[in-house]
Write a structure and sequence with these properties.
The protein is mainly α and 83 residues long. The chain is 52% helix and 0% strand. It has four helices and no strands. The protein has helices at 3-18, 22-26, 47-53, 61-75. The chain starts with a helix and ends in an 8-residue tail after the last helix.
Length: 83
């Protein structure tokens, strides 16, 4: 999953939870030039931990993101800023 795909998932959840149109959130995305020496790709290979320790994620990514977004919306719901 790319960073942009992850952001799109988060924004979709945020839009659904706040009833703010997703295009409002999408307008906040900006692309910047890569830094010199910046890694072009981040990847996690969990096959070793899965095979050696029989580990696997208990929470699907969408469920985990939903819980995280709800947590932060609840945590900051007392603030005066609008979502």
């Amino acid at each position: 999953m790319s960073n942009l795909q992850l952001i799109e998932m988060i924004l979709k959840i945020l839009s659904e939870q706040t009833q703010v149109p997703i295009d409002i959130y999408q307008s906040l995305i900006s692309f910047v030039e890569d830094r010199k020496g910046h890694d072009f790709r981040y990847a996690i290979d969990s096959s070793k931990i899965a095979s050696d320790l029989k580990w696997q994620a208990k929470t699907p990514i969408k469920d985990g993101l939903l819980k995280t977004v709800k947590f932060y919306l609840n945590k900051y719901s007392n603030r005066k800023e609008n979502y």
